[in-house]
Amino acid sequence: MVPIWWYIVLGVVLFVIGAAGVLLRRNILVLLMSLELLLNSVNINFIAFGRYHADFRGQIFAIFVIAITAAEVAVALGILVALVRNKSTLKIDDVTVMKG
After folding, report:
1. Rounded-to-integer distance, Cα 5 and Cα 56, Å
2. Is the pLDDT of residue 99 over 70?
3. CA 32 – CA 38 distance, rounded (Å)
4. What pLDDT digit, counting tens, does each position of 6-54 carry?
5. Is 12 helix (H, G, I), strand (E, B) or coil?
6. Could you give the C-alpha distances from 21 to 24, 39, 40, 62, 99, in angstroms and in order?
7. Alpha-carbon distance 29 to 94, whole Å?
8. What is the DSSP secondary-structure string of 54-85?
9. Which of 15, 23, 62, 80 can pair with 41 through a Cys bridge, CB separation 3.0 to 4.6 Å?
10. Long-range CB contact pairs, 38-43, < 8 A, 24+
11. To 10 degrees, what angle do helices 28-52 and 4-24 make?
């Protein structure tokens, strides 16, 4: 059996990579992928602690996070398509002001 600290280390590494991507990159697609890494690292920890404590609540929380993430991605990609049609750029600095 794999020790729980391996899962925690994997979750921390993914979280740090995702946080660095959110803070350092200026492309909207990279930002969305970094947010996905952040949420997946949390899911790994939910499932690892749920299995460690022999409880299904960690897996249930992970399923809810996956469902919320899927909805977030659908809305974000819709906004992204509209943004590219209007501004024709994916850089965050170029689209900081949203005017109607």
Report:
1. 19
2. no
3. 10
4. 999 999 999 999 999 999 988 888 999 999 999 999 999 999 999 999 9
5. helix
6. 5, 13, 14, 22, 27
7. 14
8. T-SHHHHHHHHHHHHHHHHHHHHHHHHHHHHH
9. 15
10. 38/14, 39/65, 39/69, 40/14, 41/10, 41/11, 41/12, 41/13, 41/14, 41/15, 42/11, 42/15
11. 160
Contacts of 50 (CB under 8 A, 6+ apart): 56, 57, 58, 59, 61, 62
In single-letter form, the type of residue at position 86 comes to N
Burial of 6 (0-12, 13-18, 19+ CB in 10 A): exposed
Quick: pLDDT tens for 67-98. Answer: 999 999 999 899 888 888 887 777 877 776 65
